[in-house]
Amino acid sequence: MVNANPGKASYLAQSNALLRKNLTYQKRNKCQNCCLFVFPVLILVLLVVLQHYVDQEQRKEKPRLPPVPHPPEMLPALQIPVPEGLAVRSNHLPFQDLPDPSCRNNSSCPATFLFTASNNSFAKGVVDGMFSTATSVNSSDQLDLLVLGTDSPDYLSDDNFHLYYLQNNCNKRSSISLTINRKSIELKCMEGLTLWRNSMSDINDDIFKAEEEMSEFAGAFDLLNSDSSSFNVIVWYKTVYNFLSDSASEIPVRFLNMVSNAYLQLLRGKGSQIPVEFIKDMPTHNYLNQPNFVTLMSTLLFIWIIIWLFPVMLQALVYEKQHKLRIMMKMHGLGDRAYWTISYGYFAIVSSIYMLCFVAFGSLLGLSFFTSNDYTIQFVFYFVYANLQVSVTFLAAGLFSNVKTASVVGYLLVFVTGLLGNFLFQSLLEEPSFPRIWVIILELFPGFSSFRGLYELQQYAFEGSMVGDRGMEWKDLNNPENGMREVMIIMLIEWMLTVILAYYIDRLSSSSGSCWKKLSSSSRQPKLQSNEPQVSLETESTDVVQERETVKRSILESAGSHAIICDNIRKVYPARDGNPPHTAVKGLYLALPQAGCFGMLGPNGAGKTSFISMMIGLTKPTSGTAFINGLDIRTHMDEVYSMIGVCPQHDLLWETLTGREHLMFYGRLKNLKGAALKQAVEESLKTVNLYYGGVADKQTGKYSGGMKRRLSVAISLIGDPKVVFMDEPSTGLDPASRNNLWNVVKHAKQDRAIVLTTHSMEEAESLCDRLGIFVDGSLQCIADAKELKARYGGMMVFTMTTTVDNNAEVEEMVKLISPNANKIYHLAGTQKFELPKNEVRIADIFEAVEVAKRRFPVHAWGLADTTLEEVFIKVAKAASSA
Ligand SMILES: *[C@@H]1O[C@H](CO)[C@@H](O)[C@H](O)[C@H]1NC(C)=O
Ligand SMILES: *[C@@H]1O[C@H](CO)[C@@H](O)[C@H](O)[C@H]1NC(C)=O
Questions:
Q1: Least distant ligand from the CA of 128
Q2: Ligand sitting nearest the alpha carbon of 177
Q3: Which of 482, 509, 536 is the last residue of a domain?
Q4: Within a domain: residue 861?
Q5: Which of 146, 581, 658, 770 is at a distance of 20 to 30 A from 105, taking alpha carbons?
């Protein structure tokens, strides 16, 4: 053992110890941590794969083109059939006015237009003027003088499209070379033929029949009842489906223009015209209008990802609580402040890293949810949410005392929050008649406020990608439609409040199991029952009275002269469930010297553990107080913690940490550093026999009960505490380990005070310098083992076995030796007597037996002193019958 007491560990030393412990702990939980980070990555990858798949499926159905912000100008060309498809005379169409099929040989077939009207001569006048007569066109500026035609479905993107200009006959000039859009293009002349039909149905028939021959008319017009004062026209034209732009290129405008222009020129002369210079599409985004289901799903998946950490952290916190590790750390000097800053900071950093990975990975995968929104907004949002989540977790941890319950509730909450958010809250959000104030009230629940934030980010990302713009920017926060600002404000305020509340509740509950129990017990605590009569003096034994005098004297002198002084310390548990208030410790006086071991014996439920709980600060005394090394436990518990060691009744260990790591941690809490720490840990491991065979570096989850017990004792002794409390340290140990442990305690008690409770009289006798028998909340006696035996024993047990006939003689003999002897057992020839020690001398007994042997046969006899066990039973019986 290192002898110099290193003093109270500073805040930094405590934080350092806890941080290192946490890091080691996390290192052990590698698997769980990997899963933790793999989960969002998996979901994101899944999302991308799904998106990719869905996109591909959609592309198969409908090709998706890039947006067209500046559509090109298109030449106002008529869609005319390919030259080989132009209608000619045939068996099906035997009309003489149609061109002869021989024209196909030299590609000189005319484009045939059919027309009809109520006034033949008027209509003929109109259609005759439809085609251009210009012959001297030599620049693209003059294109509007020509009637253009093309047989390519999309002559914009088609490189070898054919452009024609239509004339009544092509004798004069058969082609014009022009430069259009920096492309040199050859315009071929094509004859335009107009043929009269008597009715609309004739036209229909002809077109239909031509189709059968795989040939086409270029178009048809019905001028109806048009005359010089009114113009009515019906146009037949062919819709050409354009597979590239995913649309029917319906440009009947040129047909209509052609015939209108002709009408105008007929009425007003050649000078009047309606030129069409070009046709232009509307600018378009070409996006798919319906948000696909991947987009719909992503908010749900993202909310699951970001609240996934909640149950994980909750489990970690409740684990420390369920296994009372928090209290154990506190008892070994870990201050609340250090615990809080490290635990909170630790979780906050882990959450922040988690969120950062989430955003970084999503961005790497190129999801617009991450890439299009302003990163600073995302960081602020995730950071605030991460902190809110950590503080809410701390608050929630107060409600649970069992890891299993906590994790079931935690995961269920995550699952349900996601579903409710996605299917209920979102529809409420999108319902304009739903009052906004209710939305805000719903957002007070952190799950919904985070959902709203993600929802807004998603909306902006989606809209942004549609208009080719960025997503949410800071200026968008002013948009009243955007819930991001209110969400951030709500989360920020909630964060502040929950941190304060969680800290307050934690301080309340850190001394008892559950904060609610504590709250209710403090509210129902009965007013002090100090006027309850003191334990009557007559029934107290002199040594208890003496102890009280010692306590009173030493308090007056100096409280620091003893390691422990208890001054009328009392513990009353408040009435609960109809039971009256229970007094567990009834005004105890005790003064223990700086070195030595004090053993507390007592039946179960006598109040030993209540007493120890008060001494180590788990519960507060109802009245009275105790001083440990002169420090009042009511006011200076934090200082007291740095000088005591505790070995609790149940081993409080982290299953995944090794024995050595436990000792390192508690050593650091006791302000040991560097080489001194190492040495102390090694020695401590050696003394409790955990050093050899690699036991020290095994995780304590794999320890046997005895090994855990020995580790607990080693923990209580590390850092050389001046006062050590051991609650039944040897339960469950095999005899060899127990002996080993006794040696450790015997060595340790030489320079420190040890308070030990035990049920083993053997242990009490061999370890303790003084013993107190504690029954029903008060000390019945306090002395060393010998004295107790002398006082309460006071009897010897004499046993003799003879034949049944001699029973009376044996009894007579015993009465002779000791008139007050008492027969306590009789079966056949065997009798047992209790002889008061002060009446008999052992020599007399031997003499009497010798005499008796001569008179009748003695099969066996024995004489025994009383044991401590008998003392214990006697005291306990006497106290409970009193
Ligand atoms: C037909 O049109 C011509 C002019 O082109 C006109 O002189 C004639 O009266 C019209 N016939 C009828 C029946 O309207
Ligand atoms: C184009 O034709 C006009 C007549 O319409 C003529 O005056 C002019 O010189 C021609 N220009 C070229 C470049 O051939």
A1: 1
A2: 2
A3: 509
A4: yes
A5: 146
